[in-house]
Amino acid sequence: MPNESVPEPTPAHMHSLDCNLSHTCVLKMDLMIPAREEAISPLVESVMTAARETRIGGDKELEIETSLREALANAIKHGCCADPKKCVRCTVAFEEPGSVLIVVSDPGNGFDPAGVPDPTSDERLFENHGRGIFLINKMMDEVKFEKNGTEIHMKKY
C-alpha cells in the first residue's frame, strides 16, 4: 500500500516507564506505531527532535537514532511479522544529567537473545541481515531484553 499515508506516532498511556530514581526525568514519550516499515521514520524523527529540544543526546544522536531504528525494524519484522494490524510501542525517557532510556516492545512470542548468531563469525560475515542486535549492543551503554525478548531496554549515558 505505497500510496497510503503513514500515521504519526500516537501517544500510548498503558505502558509505564519510570525514570531512574537518582535522575530527574526531563521528558517522557510513550508512542505506538502500526507494524509497517514506513512508520519507523516518523517515530524516530519525533524522538530525535525531542532529544535535540531537551539537549539530551548531543553527541550521541547517531548511536541513539541507529539503535532505535534497528529495534523498531526488528519489532516490526520479527515481533509483529510485518502485520500492519499489530502495533509496536516505544517509550522514551530523557533524564538529567543527559541520559536516555528507550524501550521498544512488540506483541510477538519473543526470542532468546543468546541464540542470535554472531554476525562477525566467518560464516556470517557476508550475509545481508542479522546485525541489528549486534549494532545496538555496540552503540548503547546498556541493553537488556525483558518479557521473553518482546521488549528491548536500551540506555545511553
Describe, in short, the structure shown:
The protein has helices at residues 40-54, 61-79, 132-139, and strands spanning 10-11, 24-34, 87-96, 99-105, 142-146, 151-156.
List the helices and strands and how they pair.
Elements: E1 10-11, E2 24-34, H1 40-54, H2 61-79, E3 87-96, E4 99-105, H3 132-139, E5 142-146, E6 151-156
Antiparallel strand pairs: 1-2, 2-3, 3-4, 4-6, 5-6
Order of strands side by side in the largest beta sheet? Answer: 1-2-3-4-6-5
Percentage of residues in strands? 25-35%
Quaternary status of these chains?
A: single chain
Q: Supply the CATH superfamily name.
A: Histidine kinase-like ATPase, C-terminal domain
Q: Structural class of the helix and strand makeup?
A: alpha+beta
CATH class: Alpha Beta
CATH topology group: Heat Shock Protein 90
Strand element count: 6
Topology as a string of helices (H) and strands (E): EEHHEEHEE
Counting H and I runs of at least 4 residues, what is the number of helices?
A: 3
Distance between the termini: 39 Å
Radius of gyration: 15 Å
Instruction: Report the uncertain regions.
Output: 12-16
CATH architecture: 2-Layer Sandwich
What is the helix content?
25-40%
Mean pLDDT: 87
How many domains, as an integer? Answer: 1
Form type: globular
